[in-house]
């Protein structure tokens, strides 16, 4: 394959349509040009686009690695665009082409002198070996350091013909609670679930953000959406996703007032859940659970193959799902460098921190210290 490195946002226009099609094929919004533009377009002082495109001999686009040089913190790192706010990253390529595409991407980076930086690959599937090909393709020896593993829950809809079959696949207690909570809410109130349109998108997003903030009030940890610039960037992506027909922004109105909301998208065969919110005053009515149930039903009606819950270990996600996949962060520093020592030390610190964080008195302090580690970036 031949490789090309695009270092400005204007330059991605020539590959955008083919790139988008590959991302849709993977069902992954986090590697679309829309996600890249939304999160990186307003950060010219802190990140530099490094979009590596790999082409076959016939000139067709085989894949894209939508990377940036992140200079928000030292050591500087090459990582996926919008990585702080994305939950799962893959090469925008067919699975069979992944390794060839990332090898070509590594060649493109090296030709531009970018091989002096460490690679920080956030939230990549643990079962996919493509990142090791980046390590092998590097002309400088790199150490692979794996850390921060999460299980990403999802619902596999294969073999399920509609909502009733899905419910039948869950426990009797789950079926009973879902039906009872939705029936009780509809018997006592006027309930409507509405989807955002192009005309209502701005107002509906504002309502979703308000419900999300209310849900997080009083917690020790803050939501990723409470980071400066997160909501405007997500709003830009939502607008672009709405135009593409991907966006799934739904609000649950009770007696004419929004009490719960869901923000996600449908790409290819995958229906994904990104953010939600609900009014705590309605918590006893389980409006968040009702919102989720109606959304899963909607995904089944759309004949999606999968409902991806993305990152987050909330108990209700486990109750709805029937499968999970492990993701982790992989760092590839030069094997002989001070950075490798820093990152290796960080990996050990994180392992110790996970054990200590189980003690409530230490949890908050450890979370604050984690932000000082070499690979921690929240901007």
Task: Describe the protein's topology.
Elements: E1 2-6, H1 16-26, H2 33-40, E2 47-55, E3 61-70, E4 77-80, E5 92-93, H3 98-111, E6 118-125, H4 130-137, E7 145-156, H5 163-168, H6 172-188, E8 191-195, H7 201-216, H8 230-244, E9 247-254, E10 257-267, E11 270-278, H9 287-301, E12 306-308, H10 315-320, E13 323-332, H11 338-356, H12 360-370
Parallel strand pairs: 4-6, 11-12
Antiparallel strand pairs: 1-2, 2-3, 3-4, 3-5, 6-13, 7-12, 7-13, 8-9, 9-10, 10-11
What does this molecule look like?
The chain is an alpha+beta fold. It has 2 domains: 2-149 and 328-370, Aminopeptidase, CATH 3.40.630; 159-304, Gcn5-related N-acetyltransferase (GNAT) (Aminopeptidase). The protein contains 12 helices and 13 strands. It has helices at residues 16-26, 33-40, 98-111, 130-137, 163-168, 172-188, 201-216, 230-244, 287-301, 315-320, 338-356, 360-370; strands spanning 2-6, 47-55, 61-70, 77-80, 92-93, 118-125, 145-156, 191-195, 247-254, 257-267, 270-278, 306-308, 323-332. Strands 1, 2, 3, 4, 5, 6, 7, 8, 9, 10, 11, 12 and 13 form a 13-stranded mixed β-sheet that branches. Strand 11, helix 9 (287-301) and strand 12 (306-308) form a beta-alpha-beta unit. The longest helix is centred in the C-terminal third of the chain and has 19 residues, at 338-356. The two termini are 34 Å apart. The mean pLDDT is 89.
